[in-house]
Structure formats: structure tokens, C-alpha cells
Amino acid sequence: MIEAITDSGERREMTINMGPQHPSTHGVLRLELVLDGEVVKHVKPHIGYLHRCFEKYAEQMDDYAKVIPYTDRMDYVSAMNQEHGYVLAVERMLELEVPERVEYIRVIMAELQRIASHLLGIGAFGLDLGAFTPFLYLFIEREKILDIFEKASGARLLYNYMAVAGLMRDVHPEFKDEVADFVKTFRPKIKELDDLLSYNKIFVRRTANIGVLPVKVALNYAASGPVLRGSGFKWDLRKNDPYSIYDRFDFDIPVGSGEMGSLGDCWDRYIVRVKEMEQSLRIIEQALDGMPDEGDVMAAIPKRIRPKEGELYVRTESPRGELGYYIVSDKSASPFRVKARAPSFVHLSMLPAISKGALIADIVAIVGSIDIVLGEVDR
Amino acid sequence: MTQYLLNINPIAILVHAAIPLTIILVYALVAIWAERKVAGFIQDRLGPMRVGGWHGWAQSIADLLKLIQKEDIIPADSSRFLFKFAPFMMFAASYAAFAVIPFSSSYIGSNINIGVFYLLAVTSVLTLSIIMAGWASNNKWSLLGGMRSAAQLVSYEVPTIATVLTVIVVTGSLNLMTITEMQSGNDILGFLPNWLIFQNPFLLVAFVIFFISILAESHRVPFDLPESESELVAGYQTEYSGMRWAMFMLAEYADMLLLSLLGATLFFGGWNSPFGEFMSGPFWSFFWFMLKGLLLVFVMMWIRWTLPRYRVDQLMYICWSILIPLSFINLVLVALWEVIF
């Protein structure tokens, strides 16, 4: 049935489906847009196209360790961070100490993954705005990180590298040199990115004052990560609630300042990610200095883990924000319940609030700037 | 009129029709391949390398063969006739305009007195065919793309025409052959060719405005809103596939070449050699003319792979608030310059 659009009343508006196969919805998100011309009146995100029953699987696995590959598949862009959060939670449940070397390698891996994830995030953001070339430049850098991961874990996307009480295997002998090399070559590339994209006039005009997220709204929606920091709120779990060995490192928390437009716009969220990559490089350098050269990468644990009865919530800072694992144990071999608190899901729920009155092109920019991964939204 | 029609030699018409068509088709195959190579080199990769051996030179031919074989899909609720007709009309519009382009010192399809006027008039049919395609597809994304392009092309025709007018003020002729002939010789500062762009500082400004406008007219980045991939899926082309889609591509590239050649004619001396008498003559003039046009096409590709895209309201702002006032002020200044010097 073809509906006619008239000039007045309800018929003036047009409902249009953006996705699930739209090129810039970052996977399988469907947005129901109500348009008046090109102005968006309402946005309604529809999710669930990538639902894979993570939580139910976790209960059925009969082993805490077997859940780790599934955590990889939640946010497939930053699998290391997802594993990190989960193994930390299980270890805290077991009240386990892991070797020093493991902590350092985990932090290096997590920070490298954060850079890789931000590279993809800001590259795809540029792509959404029509800038193809920066995307591929950033992919060259991301490739180097994935090469390091591949040598260490054997996989390039879903690593299954961190294990409860340690690591699957030790890193390769050249690991330290390779990471140091990467840090050295990557620093100038951030400058290059700034020249090509960040301060590009067209890019700024497309992102400044668009999708403004006031800090109060951000807090009400429980936003976290770069989205919250983009609104100027200094909150980073690595500093505010240190886990692993993050209290040993010296780094800053970049926040948005409304430099190009108003505080909390798309450009602020973007630039926070760019600056975070520099901070991650600083953490990696310090971790490389402190990392012991020798040592075990696995603490002694029983083959089957059975944590004592209880529940706990452990939160870590993933590239997208606060990633929390709520685990309930009933003393059996598999968790009674695992609930993941995914930042992308929270940020996607803010979309209707920050995109009223935007144009279609702005919706694309806003979705790109909150940097969601649908695997994590749907789980 | 009847007398005129009777005097036409059908063979001559066929020849005059075939020459620009051959040029466009050969150019389109080369340009699509070149676009991918340029994109590849700008993005630090190789681009097509396999088909045909040397740097994948046969890639476009392979793509064309693939497109010919594809199923011809027409959406169920579409307006069938308009849907089928739109791509051909779009190509016809740019193809017809090539008739007045002076390809060489001894070849022009139709040496009419109102050449520029004819060219601008015929190319405005492009807008119509895009709206036709967008509406006939019965797809909301196509419709949005079609409407965007209507607004964009109609708006940017104004600065394009205003800058073309500045050239006409200087040359006093609408005939592109005459305009080109007026730019022969190397007299400026003793060595520079007498191209219009060197003759007068305001014509340089006019060229900049003209170039921005033709970027928008041929909807290239940063003004590629009608088919902006990340927003409108593929704009008015969303429902097209196979040969009809290929016709859109062909028309797009033909349009790029047409406007670049127009720019070369109006500002860069058309088929005149940059070295005066050296390397001139019918063949070399064709060479210089295509070289100038293709250089402008290359700059368009270069911009495409460097810049992000403007938003639709910003695009309109640039046109109506910046380019149009500027081009009219420029027109007056050029006229004053002509009166004084």
C-alpha cells in the first residue's frame, strides 16, 4: 500500500526505516525515523538482531572458563577488554592473586585493544561523514596491533587469550620490542589524523553543536566512557575505581571542553577518543618498563573452578565505557547467573534524547559518535 | 525548416554522433579504473591489480561485462516506464551537450552561435532525470535523494551560470569555438598563454567559484549528497541494478568530463597549446584539450578521496549565501575591469 504524503496534519510526516541493512548503522541496528522533510521528529531504535543469548549460554557452560570465548563475542571490536573484565570478576570471586607478569601483559593488551577499538570507532565515524581515506589510514595502524595480538594469541579478532588466573599462553619473545616499536610509530600518526580529519573545517562543521549531550542528561542515563567524558565529566574507572594494576600508572583523563561548539557535542566525543589513544600509549610505555621479563603466566588453580556461594559486580573501563559483570555463584561448576552491563546498550538508549530535531545526516553523525557495537547491545 | 532537414546528410550526423560517444565510452572505462587507482594510491593501497595484467587495466571492462549479465530488477510498485527511462535520459542529457564542445581546432560537433547557452540548457535536464529516478523507484531513500539533488542542482546552476557569464562578458561570444580561438597566443608577461584565467584576476576568482559549482553540479564529494552512501544508502540509485545502474555511472562520469571540458574551454584556453605554436595542430589540440579536461577530473577525484561531506543545509548555505552573491559581485567587477582596461 502506497501512502500519500500531504502538506498538513499527520500525513505530512514520513516514517522511514534506517537499517538493519543501512550502511552506517554499524551492524544490524534498525532506527525508525519519523521525518518531516529531512528533519527527524522521532527516533526509535529497534535492537535484537544480533541477540545470541550470552547470559543463558553462560549458565549452561558448566565451566567458568568456557564463558570467556562468549565474552569475546559481545563487543567483538574490543575482545581483550571484555575478557579482562570477566576474568577479573571470576578471580575476585575466587580471591585469587595472579602473577605480576600476567597483570602487566593484561594491561598492555587491554590498552592496545583500546587503541585498536578507538581507531575503528573514529575511522568509521569519519566514514559516516563521507571521509573514506582516514578510515583506511587508521586501519593500517589497527592492523599492526592485530598482528601483535595474532602472534600472542593466534587470533585476530576473538582472542580467548586471558584465562582465569592467568593467560592462555605466554607472549612471544619479541613481544616487548614489537609493542615499543608500535608505540614509537603510532605517535606521529595521531598528529596526521588531526591534520586530515579532526580539525578539518568540513568535519568540524558536521560534528560541532550536533547531538549535544548535557552532562546532567548523561548522568541520568548512566552514560560512561568517552560519551560521558565528552560531556566534560571526569570519570574513568581506571582512576576512579582502579582495578588490576592501573593505580600504578600515571595518565590523564581527557574530557571534552566544547572547543569547537558546545560542550558534549559529537566533536567532543570524537576528540576524547583521539586523546585517549595518547594516554593509552603512555600507559603502555610505563607498563613495558615495569613488566618483569621472566615469570609464570598462570597461577595455580584447580581444574574445575567452584567459587563459594555469593554474588559480585566488577566493573572495568572498556573502550566504550563501564563494562560490568554481575556474577552469581551457587557453588556449582557453572555460574548461576552472569549479567553483563554493556555501555553500548546504555548509550544507544540515549539516542532519542539527543537527536530530536536533527537532520538525517546528523543522525548518522550521532550514531557514529556514540560508537556502539551491536554485538554488545544485543549480547 | 523542412528545407533545412532535407539538407542534412545522415552519414554526417552518424559520424558526428559517434565521435563524442566513442570519446565518452573510452574515457568512462579509463576514468572508472583511474578513479579506483587514484583512490588506492591516496589511501596507501594498490587498487585493482589482477584483471588484464598490468595494474588491472581491464577492471572496468570486467565490471561492465558483469553488469551486462546481471538480472534487470524493476521494483514491483515502481512506475515502470519512468523507472526504465530515467537512466537513459540522464545519459542523453550529458551526451547531447558534447555536441557543442570544441574537441580540437578542426572538430566541433555543431558550431552554433549559442553554444554555452545550449550546453547549460541541455544539462539541466539531468535534474529532471534524477527526480524521475528517485520518484519512480517508489523507495523513500530514493525519493529523499531525488529531492536533495533537485534542490542542489537547481541552486548550483545559478553560480555556474553567473561565472560563465563573466567569461562571456570578456569574450563577447557564446560560441565555444570562438571563445577558444580568442585565447590563442602567448602574450601575457611575455610567456604566459592568453588563457582567460591569466588575463584578469577576477576571472581567477570566477574559476574558483565555477569549479566549486561544477563539483556540486556533478555531485562529487564534498557535495555528493544525492547519492551519499552513508546517509541515503545510494540515493536515487538505490533500486537500480545491472545495466541501468551502469548507465547512471556512465552519465555521472560523462557529466564530470563535460563540465571539466567546459571549464578547460572557458578558462584554460580549450585546445590551445600552452607553448604557443609548438605542438599545435588538429591532433595536438585534441591532446591538449583532453589533457586539461582530465586534469580537472583528476582534481575532482583527489578532492573526493580527501574530504568529508557537507550536510544538506550547509550545502544550500554555501550556495545561496556565499557563492551566488560572490559570483554576481565578481561579474560586476569583471565588467568594470573590461571597461577600464
Task: Provide an overview of this structure.
Chain A has a domain at 65-303: Cytochrome-c3 Hydrogenase, chain B, CATH 1.10.645.10. Chain A is built from 15 helices and eight strands. Chain A has helices spanning 54-60, 68-72, 79-94, 100-128, 132-153, 175-198, 201-207, 215-220, 225-230, 237-240, 266-290, 343-349, 351-354, 360-370, 374-378, and strands at 14-18, 30-36, 39-46, 162-163, 166-167, 310-318, 321-329, 337-341. In chain A, a hairpin with a 2-residue loop joins strand 6 and strand 7. In chain A, helix 4 packs antiparallel against helix 11 (266-290) and helix 6 packs antiparallel against helix 11. Chain B has 341 residues and is an all-alpha fold. Chain B is 67% helix and 1% strand. In chain B, strands 1-2 form a two-stranded antiparallel sheet. The relative contact order of chain B is 0.14. The model of chain B has no long low-confidence stretch (mean pLDDT 84).
